[in-house]
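# nightly structure sweep
# worker-07 picked up a monomer target from the shared queue
# config: single-sequence mode, recycle default, output format = C-alpha coordinates
# input follows
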Amino acid sequence: MRVIMSMTRAIALVLGSFGLMVAVAAACALFTLALTGRPDRDGGKTLGAAMLGLGLLGGLLVAYVSALASGGFAGIADQVAPAPLRWALVLAAVTSAAVVATMCATLRSESPGEVPWVLLPLRSWAHWIWLPGLVAGAVFGLYPALREALPSRSWQMPLQGLGALSLLLATGLLAQLALSIADHRAVRAQADLDFHARRDASILQQVQQADPQRDFLSLLPQSSRDEVPEIRALAIAKLRSHPDLDGALAGVLRGAFADEAFTFLESNEPVDARALAPVVREGIVAHARALREQMAGTHTLRPDDYQYPVLRILAVADRYASYGVDYRPALRQVRDAYDTPRDYAQPTPKMNGQRAVDDWLRRH
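# output follows
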Protein backbone atom coordinates (compact mmCIF):
# COMPACT_ATOMS: atom_id res chain seq x y z
CA MET A 1 0.00 0.00 0.00
CA ARG A 2 2.82 2.38 0.84
CA VAL A 3 4.45 1.62 -2.50
CA ILE A 4 1.22 2.44 -4.33
CA MET A 5 0.80 5.69 -2.40
CA SER A 6 4.39 6.64 -3.13
CA MET A 7 3.90 5.95 -6.84
CA THR A 8 0.68 7.97 -6.83
CA ARG A 9 2.44 10.95 -5.23
CA ALA A 10 5.31 10.66 -7.71
CA ILE A 11 2.97 10.64 -10.68
CA ALA A 12 1.00 13.57 -9.23
CA LEU A 13 4.26 15.48 -8.73
CA VAL A 14 5.36 14.89 -12.32
CA LEU A 15 1.99 15.90 -13.77
CA GLY A 16 1.71 18.85 -11.43
CA SER A 17 5.20 20.08 -12.34
CA PHE A 18 4.34 19.88 -16.03
CA GLY A 19 1.12 21.83 -15.46
CA LEU A 20 3.04 24.37 -13.41
CA MET A 21 5.51 24.93 -16.24
CA VAL A 22 2.66 25.49 -18.69
CA ALA A 23 1.02 27.94 -16.27
CA VAL A 24 4.28 29.86 -15.72
CA ALA A 25 4.84 30.17 -19.49
CA ALA A 26 1.26 31.42 -20.01
CA ALA A 27 1.57 33.85 -17.08
CA CYS A 28 4.79 35.32 -18.51
CA ALA A 29 3.10 35.76 -21.89
CA LEU A 30 0.15 37.49 -20.21
CA PHE A 31 2.54 39.86 -18.41
CA THR A 32 4.08 40.72 -21.77
CA LEU A 33 0.62 41.26 -23.26
CA ALA A 34 -0.34 43.57 -20.40
CA LEU A 35 2.86 45.62 -20.84
CA THR A 36 2.12 46.41 -24.49
CA GLY A 37 -0.23 49.18 -23.39
CA ARG A 38 -2.11 49.17 -26.70
CA PRO A 39 -5.91 48.85 -26.82
CA ASP A 40 -7.38 46.07 -28.90
CA ARG A 41 -8.31 47.46 -32.33
CA ASP A 42 -9.03 44.37 -34.39
CA GLY A 43 -9.73 41.63 -31.85
CA GLY A 44 -6.29 40.06 -32.15
CA LYS A 45 -5.24 40.98 -28.64
CA THR A 46 -8.43 39.55 -27.17
CA LEU A 47 -8.07 36.34 -29.15
CA GLY A 48 -4.45 35.96 -28.10
CA ALA A 49 -5.31 36.63 -24.47
CA ALA A 50 -8.11 34.07 -24.60
CA MET A 51 -5.70 31.42 -25.87
CA LEU A 52 -3.13 32.31 -23.21
CA GLY A 53 -5.85 32.30 -20.57
CA LEU A 54 -6.89 28.80 -21.58
CA GLY A 55 -3.27 27.67 -21.37
CA LEU A 56 -2.93 29.30 -17.96
CA LEU A 57 -6.13 27.73 -16.66
CA GLY A 58 -5.28 24.30 -18.06
CA GLY A 59 -1.82 24.31 -16.49
CA LEU A 60 -3.11 25.56 -13.15
CA LEU A 61 -5.87 22.97 -12.99
CA VAL A 62 -3.39 20.16 -13.65
CA ALA A 63 -1.04 21.56 -10.97
CA TYR A 64 -3.75 22.15 -8.37
CA VAL A 65 -5.46 18.80 -8.97
CA SER A 66 -2.10 17.10 -8.53
CA ALA A 67 -1.50 19.06 -5.34
CA LEU A 68 -4.95 18.16 -4.01
CA ALA A 69 -4.40 14.50 -4.84
CA SER A 70 -1.14 14.46 -2.87
CA GLY A 71 -2.61 16.31 0.13
CA GLY A 72 -0.93 19.62 -0.59
CA PHE A 73 -3.93 21.74 0.47
CA ALA A 74 -5.12 19.60 3.36
CA GLY A 75 -5.22 22.50 5.80
CA ILE A 76 -6.80 25.22 3.66
CA ALA A 77 -10.50 24.43 4.14
CA ASP A 78 -10.52 21.55 6.58
CA GLN A 79 -12.39 23.55 9.16
CA VAL A 80 -15.35 24.36 6.94
CA ALA A 81 -15.50 21.73 4.21
CA PRO A 82 -15.08 17.98 3.76
CA ALA A 83 -12.61 16.76 1.14
CA PRO A 84 -14.95 16.69 -1.93
CA LEU A 85 -16.21 20.19 -1.22
CA ARG A 86 -12.66 21.34 -0.56
CA TRP A 87 -11.68 20.12 -4.02
CA ALA A 88 -14.62 21.96 -5.56
CA LEU A 89 -13.84 25.20 -3.69
CA VAL A 90 -10.15 25.14 -4.58
CA LEU A 91 -10.73 24.42 -8.28
CA ALA A 92 -13.55 27.00 -8.50
CA ALA A 93 -11.30 29.58 -6.86
CA VAL A 94 -8.42 28.74 -9.23
CA THR A 95 -10.70 29.02 -12.26
CA SER A 96 -12.13 32.33 -11.04
CA ALA A 97 -8.67 33.73 -10.30
CA ALA A 98 -7.35 32.72 -13.73
CA VAL A 99 -10.30 34.41 -15.43
CA VAL A 100 -9.84 37.61 -13.38
CA ALA A 101 -6.09 37.72 -14.04
CA THR A 102 -6.50 37.11 -17.78
CA MET A 103 -9.21 39.72 -18.17
CA CYS A 104 -7.26 42.34 -16.19
CA ALA A 105 -4.13 41.75 -18.27
CA THR A 106 -6.19 42.02 -21.46
CA LEU A 107 -8.32 45.05 -20.53
CA ARG A 108 -5.59 47.11 -18.85
CA SER A 109 -5.40 49.62 -21.72
CA GLU A 110 -9.05 49.62 -22.77
CA SER A 111 -11.45 52.50 -22.20
CA PRO A 112 -13.70 52.20 -19.12
CA GLY A 113 -16.73 51.49 -21.27
CA GLU A 114 -15.10 48.29 -22.53
CA VAL A 115 -14.35 46.95 -19.04
CA PRO A 116 -16.83 45.11 -16.77
CA TRP A 117 -17.60 47.35 -13.81
CA VAL A 118 -16.48 44.58 -11.42
CA LEU A 119 -12.92 44.84 -12.77
CA LEU A 120 -12.65 48.61 -13.16
CA PRO A 121 -10.79 49.14 -9.84
CA LEU A 122 -8.50 46.15 -10.51
CA ARG A 123 -7.64 46.10 -14.18
CA SER A 124 -4.41 48.11 -13.97
CA TRP A 125 -2.75 46.05 -11.25
CA ALA A 126 -4.61 42.80 -10.39
CA HIS A 127 -2.58 40.60 -12.76
CA TRP A 128 0.60 41.59 -10.89
CA ILE A 129 -0.81 39.92 -7.76
CA TRP A 130 -3.14 37.22 -9.12
CA LEU A 131 -0.69 35.57 -11.52
CA PRO A 132 2.23 35.24 -9.04
CA GLY A 133 -0.22 34.24 -6.31
CA LEU A 134 -1.66 31.44 -8.42
CA VAL A 135 1.78 30.15 -9.36
CA ALA A 136 2.99 30.39 -5.75
CA GLY A 137 -0.06 28.49 -4.51
CA ALA A 138 0.65 25.68 -6.96
CA VAL A 139 4.32 25.60 -5.89
CA PHE A 140 3.47 25.32 -2.19
CA GLY A 141 0.78 22.74 -2.88
CA LEU A 142 3.08 20.55 -4.97
CA TYR A 143 6.36 20.60 -3.05
CA PRO A 144 6.22 19.52 0.62
CA ALA A 145 9.75 20.79 1.37
CA LEU A 146 8.71 24.36 0.62
CA ARG A 147 5.54 24.04 2.70
CA GLU A 148 7.49 22.78 5.68
CA ALA A 149 10.06 25.56 5.44
CA LEU A 150 7.41 28.22 6.21
CA PRO A 151 4.65 28.55 8.77
CA SER A 152 1.47 27.20 7.17
CA ARG A 153 -0.50 30.38 7.79
CA SER A 154 2.11 32.49 6.02
CA TRP A 155 1.10 31.04 2.64
CA GLN A 156 -2.32 29.52 3.32
CA MET A 157 -4.03 32.71 4.48
CA PRO A 158 -2.97 34.84 1.45
CA LEU A 159 -4.02 31.99 -0.84
CA GLN A 160 -7.38 31.71 0.92
CA GLY A 161 -7.92 35.46 0.63
CA LEU A 162 -6.99 35.44 -3.07
CA GLY A 163 -9.38 32.54 -3.70
CA ALA A 164 -12.26 34.07 -1.77
CA LEU A 165 -11.87 37.44 -3.52
CA SER A 166 -11.64 35.71 -6.90
CA LEU A 167 -14.87 33.82 -6.25
CA LEU A 168 -16.57 37.07 -5.28
CA LEU A 169 -15.33 38.83 -8.42
CA ALA A 170 -16.37 35.89 -10.61
CA THR A 171 -19.84 36.05 -9.08
CA GLY A 172 -19.97 39.74 -9.97
CA LEU A 173 -18.86 39.01 -13.53
CA LEU A 174 -21.56 36.37 -13.90
CA ALA A 175 -24.16 38.77 -12.52
CA GLN A 176 -23.08 41.47 -14.95
CA LEU A 177 -23.13 38.94 -17.81
CA ALA A 178 -26.68 37.90 -16.89
CA LEU A 179 -27.78 41.55 -16.79
CA SER A 180 -26.08 42.22 -20.11
CA ILE A 181 -27.82 39.25 -21.73
CA ALA A 182 -31.17 40.39 -20.36
CA ASP A 183 -30.59 43.93 -21.63
CA HIS A 184 -29.54 42.61 -25.04
CA ARG A 185 -32.66 40.48 -25.27
CA ALA A 186 -34.83 43.44 -24.30
CA VAL A 187 -33.16 45.60 -26.95
CA ARG A 188 -33.59 42.87 -29.56
CA ALA A 189 -37.22 42.38 -28.60
CA GLN A 190 -37.90 46.11 -28.88
CA ALA A 191 -36.05 46.26 -32.20
CA ASP A 192 -38.22 43.40 -33.49
CA LEU A 193 -41.37 45.18 -32.34
CA ASP A 194 -40.24 48.40 -34.02
CA PHE A 195 -39.39 46.54 -37.23
CA HIS A 196 -42.77 44.83 -37.37
CA ALA A 197 -44.55 48.09 -36.56
CA ARG A 198 -42.76 49.85 -39.44
CA ARG A 199 -43.47 46.92 -41.73
CA ASP A 200 -47.17 46.85 -40.82
CA ALA A 201 -47.51 50.61 -41.28
CA SER A 202 -45.83 50.42 -44.69
CA ILE A 203 -47.93 47.47 -45.89
CA LEU A 204 -51.12 49.09 -44.60
CA GLN A 205 -50.32 52.24 -46.55
CA GLN A 206 -49.67 50.21 -49.70
CA VAL A 207 -52.96 48.34 -49.33
CA GLN A 208 -54.85 51.57 -48.71
CA GLN A 209 -53.44 53.05 -51.92
CA ALA A 210 -53.82 49.85 -53.98
CA ASP A 211 -56.27 49.63 -56.88
CA PRO A 212 -58.23 46.32 -56.90
CA GLN A 213 -57.62 45.73 -60.62
CA ARG A 214 -54.22 47.31 -61.25
CA ASP A 215 -52.68 45.99 -58.02
CA PHE A 216 -54.62 42.73 -57.82
CA LEU A 217 -51.49 40.55 -57.66
CA SER A 218 -49.88 42.57 -54.87
CA LEU A 219 -53.06 42.42 -52.75
CA LEU A 220 -53.25 38.60 -52.75
CA PRO A 221 -50.44 37.95 -50.19
CA GLN A 222 -52.10 40.32 -47.71
CA SER A 223 -55.28 38.20 -47.74
CA SER A 224 -53.54 35.41 -45.81
CA ARG A 225 -54.88 34.42 -42.39
CA ASP A 226 -51.37 35.02 -41.09
CA GLU A 227 -51.52 38.72 -41.95
CA VAL A 228 -52.29 41.45 -39.44
CA PRO A 229 -56.13 41.49 -39.09
CA GLU A 230 -56.48 45.17 -40.05
CA ILE A 231 -54.34 44.74 -43.17
CA ARG A 232 -56.01 41.45 -44.12
CA ALA A 233 -59.53 42.83 -43.76
CA LEU A 234 -58.73 45.81 -45.98
CA ALA A 235 -56.99 43.62 -48.59
CA ILE A 236 -59.91 41.18 -48.75
CA ALA A 237 -62.38 44.03 -49.08
CA LYS A 238 -60.44 45.46 -52.01
CA LEU A 239 -60.03 42.05 -53.67
CA ARG A 240 -63.74 41.33 -53.39
CA SER A 241 -64.50 44.68 -54.97
CA HIS A 242 -62.83 43.42 -58.15
CA PRO A 243 -65.49 43.15 -60.88
CA ASP A 244 -64.32 39.62 -61.85
CA LEU A 245 -62.59 38.13 -58.81
CA ASP A 246 -62.75 34.51 -59.99
CA GLY A 247 -61.52 35.40 -63.47
CA ALA A 248 -58.61 37.36 -62.04
CA LEU A 249 -57.74 34.43 -59.73
CA ALA A 250 -57.88 32.02 -62.68
CA GLY A 251 -55.52 34.23 -64.64
CA VAL A 252 -53.03 34.29 -61.77
CA LEU A 253 -53.29 30.51 -61.29
CA ARG A 254 -52.38 29.93 -64.93
CA GLY A 255 -49.43 32.32 -64.81
CA ALA A 256 -45.98 32.56 -63.25
CA PHE A 257 -47.29 33.78 -59.88
CA ALA A 258 -49.73 30.98 -59.08
CA ASP A 259 -48.49 30.84 -55.49
CA GLU A 260 -50.04 34.25 -54.80
CA ALA A 261 -53.45 32.89 -55.81
CA PHE A 262 -52.93 29.83 -53.60
CA THR A 263 -52.24 32.19 -50.70
CA PHE A 264 -55.71 33.68 -51.20
CA LEU A 265 -57.45 30.34 -51.77
CA GLU A 266 -55.93 28.73 -48.69
CA SER A 267 -57.44 31.38 -46.41
CA ASN A 268 -60.51 32.63 -48.29
CA GLU A 269 -63.35 31.48 -50.52
CA PRO A 270 -63.74 32.76 -54.09
CA VAL A 271 -67.11 33.77 -55.49
CA ASP A 272 -67.66 30.42 -57.27
CA ALA A 273 -65.38 27.75 -55.81
CA ARG A 274 -66.85 24.95 -57.95
CA ALA A 275 -66.06 26.79 -61.18
CA LEU A 276 -62.54 27.56 -59.98
CA ALA A 277 -61.72 23.99 -58.88
CA PRO A 278 -60.46 22.81 -62.32
CA VAL A 279 -58.26 25.90 -62.60
CA VAL A 280 -56.68 25.03 -59.25
CA ARG A 281 -55.37 21.87 -60.95
CA GLU A 282 -53.82 24.02 -63.67
CA GLY A 283 -52.19 26.14 -60.97
CA ILE A 284 -50.68 23.04 -59.37
CA VAL A 285 -49.22 21.98 -62.74
CA ALA A 286 -47.84 25.51 -63.22
CA HIS A 287 -46.20 25.31 -59.81
CA ALA A 288 -44.67 21.94 -60.71
CA ARG A 289 -43.03 23.56 -63.76
CA ALA A 290 -41.66 26.40 -61.64
CA LEU A 291 -40.44 23.97 -58.98
CA ARG A 292 -38.48 21.97 -61.55
CA GLU A 293 -36.67 25.13 -62.60
CA GLN A 294 -35.98 26.06 -58.97
CA MET A 295 -34.61 22.62 -58.12
CA ALA A 296 -32.39 22.56 -61.19
CA GLY A 297 -31.08 26.08 -60.65
CA THR A 298 -30.42 26.13 -56.90
CA HIS A 299 -26.77 25.51 -56.02
CA THR A 300 -27.22 24.46 -52.38
CA LEU A 301 -30.54 23.07 -51.26
CA ARG A 302 -31.84 22.94 -47.70
CA PRO A 303 -34.63 20.59 -46.63
CA ASP A 304 -37.07 23.47 -46.00
CA ASP A 305 -36.49 25.23 -49.34
CA TYR A 306 -39.71 25.73 -51.39
CA GLN A 307 -41.69 24.04 -48.61
CA TYR A 308 -44.40 26.57 -47.79
CA PRO A 309 -45.84 27.05 -51.30
CA VAL A 310 -46.31 23.26 -51.50
CA LEU A 311 -48.01 23.17 -48.09
CA ARG A 312 -50.40 25.88 -49.30
CA ILE A 313 -51.16 23.88 -52.44
CA LEU A 314 -51.92 20.76 -50.41
CA ALA A 315 -54.24 22.72 -48.14
CA VAL A 316 -56.10 24.12 -51.15
CA ALA A 317 -56.29 20.66 -52.74
CA ASP A 318 -57.93 19.32 -49.56
CA ARG A 319 -60.45 22.16 -49.55
CA TYR A 320 -61.37 21.80 -53.24
CA ALA A 321 -61.33 17.99 -53.51
CA SER A 322 -65.05 17.90 -52.71
CA TYR A 323 -65.85 19.52 -56.09
CA GLY A 324 -65.00 16.34 -57.99
CA VAL A 325 -61.60 17.31 -59.38
CA ASP A 326 -58.79 14.74 -59.08
CA TYR A 327 -55.64 16.58 -58.02
CA ARG A 328 -53.47 13.48 -57.70
CA PRO A 329 -51.93 13.58 -61.21
CA ALA A 330 -51.02 17.24 -60.79
CA LEU A 331 -49.51 16.63 -57.38
CA ARG A 332 -47.49 13.71 -58.75
CA GLN A 333 -45.93 16.23 -61.11
CA VAL A 334 -45.04 18.35 -58.08
CA ARG A 335 -43.55 15.25 -56.45
CA ASP A 336 -41.57 14.40 -59.59
CA ALA A 337 -40.21 17.95 -59.72
CA TYR A 338 -38.19 17.21 -56.59
CA ASP A 339 -36.29 14.55 -58.55
CA THR A 340 -35.18 17.01 -61.23
CA PRO A 341 -31.55 16.33 -62.26
CA ARG A 342 -29.12 18.96 -61.01
CA ASP A 343 -25.73 20.00 -62.39
CA TYR A 344 -24.19 20.62 -58.96
CA ALA A 345 -21.95 18.37 -56.90
CA GLN A 346 -23.94 18.94 -53.72
CA PRO A 347 -26.35 16.06 -53.03
CA THR A 348 -30.07 16.76 -52.99
CA PRO A 349 -31.43 16.40 -49.45
CA LYS A 350 -34.76 14.85 -48.61
CA MET A 351 -36.98 17.89 -48.98
CA ASN A 352 -39.74 18.68 -46.47
CA GLY A 353 -42.13 19.57 -49.26
CA GLN A 354 -41.42 16.24 -50.92
CA ARG A 355 -42.32 14.40 -47.71
CA ALA A 356 -45.54 16.40 -47.43
CA VAL A 357 -46.61 15.52 -50.99
CA ASP A 358 -45.75 11.85 -50.42
CA ASP A 359 -47.88 11.83 -47.27
CA TRP A 360 -50.79 13.48 -49.13
CA LEU A 361 -50.61 11.01 -51.99
CA ARG A 362 -50.55 8.07 -49.57
CA ARG A 363 -53.66 9.39 -47.83
CA HIS A 364 -55.51 9.81 -51.13
